[in-house]
Amino acid sequence: MSYAKPYKLYKKGVGRHVQLPEHLQACEAWATMKPGPRALYVELKRRFLGGNNGEIFLSHREAAKALNVHRNTIGPYFDELEARGFIRCTVRHHLGPSGIGLASKWALEDLPTPDGRPATKSFMRWRVSGAGPAKKAARA
Fold first, then answer.
1. Residue 73 maps to a domain
2. Is 12 part of any domain?
């Protein structure tokens, strides 16, 4: 007689998940970033389906709703992620042919795009600029 382990009895499939590799979490750009942009990156990564890098669609309003913040708060989050090299805008927002606005499309910089563009991982080269607390303490 075969007995199934109780913790595997109802485990049919785990579903989709978001992977944050160790090299991404260990870099200085991620370590010094505030929680808001981190949450936005996870939301962008959640919309990556395996072959749509460079075509990830996320408007400011959708992002604000997903993160439960005001829509005016999201703009600086996108700017910070782009400045630190985590994401790249492939198509800027614009009015479509029928006069309806279309949101920007994004590419994750830690993954290659389907058109053959390699992953740049520019967030690995990002460094804190200016005199932070450690530099001020070294001068004193």
1. yes
2. no
